[in-house]
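Appendix B, example 12.
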Amino acid sequence: MKRLSLLLAACLLICLLGGCAFSSDTVTLNVFNWGEYIDDEILDVNALFEEETGIRINYKTYESNESMYTLLESGAAEYDVVIPSDYMIGKMIQEGMLAKLNFDNIPNYKYIDEAYKNLAYDPQNEYSVPYTWGTVGIFYNKKYVNEADLAQGWDILWNEKYEGKIYMFDNARDSFAVALKKLGYSMNTTDPAHWQAAYDALAEQKPLVQGYFMDQVFQKMTNEEGWLAPYYSGDGANMITGDDGNENIGYFVPDQGTNLFVDAMCVLANTKHQKEAEMYINFMCRTDVATANAEYICYSTPHTEALDRLDPEVSGDPMFYPGEDVIANTEVFITLPDDTIKLQKDLWIKLKCLRDRPSWWPFPN
């Protein structure tokens, strides 16, 4: 549960007493972001933006790219700024859901490292501004997982020794990516045979899996309910050194290779406040704000000046800023063709509907 800053609490109290500083004609920006993914303590960046600009922020969160996309695509809610991952940005561009940005309103874009520009999901840098990046690896409990087994790489998640203590992502793209890399395939493959093989591997693994989770995996791992979980590198600080962290948890990136992800700030095509949305993105790229976000959420920052300001113990930690040998063995998700997306979706539904069968069960799943 995120802490509510004293400043925001005071603002809410004033509003309740009828003295809110926002007038009826105040612009409100609707911002949609991942959970646990913005500083609300060091600077409390949303409150600071409101204070400096007089623009109100209506801030909501989601757990996965797919749940975010489904809500926006349905038209059930309207947002101005959203922060999807690479492959979802590409899909939203293709479907006309994102607005081209006016970078005259985002001068702080100059601080974004060139390594995170011109990537396949937005090759001309027209629709997005990188917010964070990281790798996907495996978190494990050192008390219960044999260090020698880490050499198995992704295959450790199929090791029967850890039955009932393994978690998997509760989203199709990440779970299938793990299976594809285990099998030696690209996580961006369009070959139906590769996707079927990945499904077969996940179906084989399912009896060993305690559950499929997203943010809930933090508490379950720190409470030692489970011992192995693929997840995003930036969450290592919460799991290991956070207030409720567990120092017995370690992290490694399998030698078979992994995903390097980029989450980026975008403006929805149907926004009525594009200039204000770009002001918000520019504010998020301001050095003090980018530094506070990097320090608070602990995901890797693409902001060059913010990186220089981080504690060397953080900027030098390979969990957050891995060496070139690891980076060279990564793939960035691309937007898959429609037929591949449909196949992935169908196989994922089939996987989630599978029931564990006893060994004598005579019928196929």
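The mean pLDDT is 91. Residues 12 and 18 are 10 Å apart (CA to CA).
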